[in-house]
From TrEMBL, chains A, B:
Protein name: 8-oxo-dGTP diphosphatase
Domain Nudix hydrolase, chain residue ranges per copy: 10-144
Taxonomic lineage: Bacteria, Bacillati, Actinomycetota, Actinomycetes, Pseudonocardiales
Domain of life: Bacteria
UniProt organism field: Lentzea jiangxiensis
Single GO term (MF): hydrolase activity
Length: 234, 234
DNA sequence: GAAATAGTGTCTATAAGACACTATTTC
DNA sequence: GAAATAGTGTCTTATAGACACTATTTC
């Protein structure tokens, strides 16, 4: 039996790093310095190095881009993108996309890296378009994030160590793009075992009753789930 | 800035093809003919070819292994496995794992391929162990399949074109490894919009009342979901 | 009629959603 | 007290689950 050629390819890990700024869901984008797509906006990413896995590549890129320790941030695979013409370079470049979730960071973007990185509202990114097949990657990562909010406790990854129930609700509202009932959300979250635990402290508000502060609980899955309201059919 | 070497790698698509035989969840495994792991059982898979995407590689392998048209079968990505030592060959081999779901096939395994492929109960496969990191891939694919049953209509992919509600229930029972209440399951499925639609025909039974036959409906997602019973905590 | 599987009725427990209401703060 | 945000109570509806019961077949 004749041996087919086994093409080798270059592999990158691309990151969809989401955060919420002023109640708006934002994604970290970089302006590309080199061809292909020089000058265009793209998702941050980088090539796999010799003795690391793609998960490690993604974690390294994440810490380079955000200055945060990847071990403490939520990071998960979205999928592989391997259309032969997705990147004009040769050898072919296949990418594994990762979803990362970050709390609102002190610096707009930062990073040890010279690239011009900044946060862009997701709606803006989708309107203006990104390089490569990054529009599709962003769409898929968003859908994953929206689904994960229902069944996991990752919403707390958007928050600082201590947060109020109102802030957690704003995470759901920003990612899902809906308004949620405050009283029902409060009850659902505080009564769900392992989702959040009270820190005992309160955060004074300049405008109303101080809110109790919570920390992320030990659970990683939410049961029962917090189902996203279905869009009205009519 | 000095240019780092960009290692190139070989990429495979590996398949976790599940089916149900006599009420037992089975996975298609092949006996490896060549090193590494010659003689050991492994998941079927193959290398990416020149001008195809990994999704196409997976679809091609699936049709080679099962003789079925991949376009009609459920096929989705599970994840990428890229640990540097997961495959001893050089250049490194990264794999993208796919989950495929097949109805009970006429032939035990078949395929145009000379490899010894056969169905193995999933519990057997997990007990005896597979080559490479295929134990982990199988575990992850199973967990994905179990989760997908809750929120999507893929359970019908395990069934023939026409099936009874009892057969559909056996899919859930085999994949989840639980017993479900027959009356409640029947109602839930038949009242869920777009999950199944009656074909009008009935299938006589040698032992009891004939069951009405159904076809897969148009919906791909189940709402409300069919939640898997949580294991009793105590 | 007995046995077997298919399917319906009905009651109860749990969760979701609407929304009135109370609580605690700043001004 | 007004305004604002936090949080509780309570009622209604949707869904899940238990399980008694009816329906249709073969023997």
């Amino acid at each position: 039996m004749s041996r087919r050629p086994r093409p080798t390819v270059a592999i990158t890990a691309d990151l969809v790093i989401l955060t919420i700024r002023d109640g708006v869901l934002c994604v970290l984008v970089v302006e590309r310095g080199n061809d292909p797509f020089a000058g265009r906006l793209a998702l941050p990413g980088g090539f796999l190095r010799g003795e690391e896995s793609l998960d490690e590549t993604a974690a390294r890129e994440l810490s380079e881009e955000t200055g945060l320790d990847a071990a403490t941030l939520h990071l998960q695979q979205v999928g592989v993108y391997s259309a032969p013409d997705r990147d004009p370079r040769r050898p072919r470049v296949v990418t594994c996309a990762y979803l990362a979730i970050a709390p609102n960071l002190p610096r707009p973007a930062a990073g040890t890296d010279a690239k011009a990185a900044h946060w862009l509202p997701v709606t803006e990114a989708q309107r203006t378009g990104l390089a490569f097949d990054h529009d599709q990657i962003l769409t898929d990562a968003l859908e994953l994030a929206r689904a994960e909010l229902q069944f996991s406790t990752i919403a707390t990854a958007f928050c600082d160590t201590e947060f109020t129930i109102g802030e957690l609700r704003e995470v759901y509202e920003a990612v899902w793009g809906v308004d949620l009932d405050k009283p029902n959300f409060h009850r659902k979250v505080t009564e769900s075992a392992g989702f959040v635990e009270p820190s005992g402290a309160k955060r004074p508000s300049p405008t109303g009753r101080p809110a109790a502060l919570y920390r992320a609980g030990g659970a990683s899955t939410l049961s029962p789930p917090m189902m996203r309201p279905r869009p009205a059919s009519a």
